[in-house]
Amino acid sequence: MMENQLVLRRRQLTALLLAMIVGLFLFEPWSLFSKPIWEQEPSSESIAKGEQIFAANCAVCHGEKAVGENLQRPLGGMKDQGGYLAPALNGTGHAWHHPDEVLFRIIHEGSIAEDSPMRGFAGKLSDSEIVASIHYFKSLWPKEILNRHTEMVQH
Ligand code: HEC
Asked: Are 27 and 66 in a shared domain?
């Protein structure tokens, strides 16, 4: 009798433990504390990876080293013959006015302007590749711009 009760008790404990483990994986409570992907800190690896991604996917419009489509017009805007000019992303343009989350969304989902050639890369690049491309062009920003960007996000 005693032994039977002990076995029952042990089964209940095992069931409870299993339920807890399953719950942990279903609800991933730690994800409440993890940062969104665009807040990941750049590393020399992510910047190097981003440089390759940028060269293969973005430089065709934004120029090599993200100088912009037209060196005279880092802010982009409209071309004389119509259509959008790809702005510089190296800190001389306007991109640094956007928090990292907005930069991520522009690259992930594309420009809000439907007639813009800036289309989303969601199907083409993984989230971490998009973040790496941001780490790369931010690595080109002068320190002062980088500081102002960080301050802007914190306020
Ligand atoms: C086919 C040309 C083209 C390609 C390829 C392209 N872009 Fe763009 N991008 C543009 C144009 C044009 C704009 C500005 C017009 C707009 O925002 O709609 C823009 C805007 C942006 C902006 C917003 C800049 C700002 O100052 O507001 C970011 C950030 C950006 N692109 C990043 C990227 C990244 C990163 C890639 C590669 C993964 C990429 N783009 C590929 C043409 C392109």
From this structure: no
pLDDT one digit per residue (tens) for the chain, 155 residues: 577 888 888 889 999 999 999 888 887 776 677 789 999 999 999 999 999 999 999 999 999 999 999 999 999 999 988 999 999 999 999 998 999 999 999 999 999 999 999 999 999 999 999 999 999 999 999 999 999 998 987 76
The number of beta carbons lying within 10 Å of the beta carbon of residue 47 is 18
Range of the domain at 96: 40-154
Residue 86 C-alpha to ligand 1 middle, in angstroms?
6
Q: What is the pTM of this model?
A: 0.83
118 Cα: distance to centroid of ligand 1 (angstroms): 5
Please give the Cα distance from 88 to 67 (Å, whole number).
5
Token digits for 152? 């802007």
**Residues 4, 72 share a domain:** no
Give the integer Cα–Cα distance in Å for 86 and 68.
Answer: 6
Ligand 1 site residues (CB inside 6 A) read 57-58, 60-62, 76, 84, 86-87, 89, 93-95, 98, 103, 106-107, 111, 113, 116-118, 121, 133
Same domain, 13 and 47: no
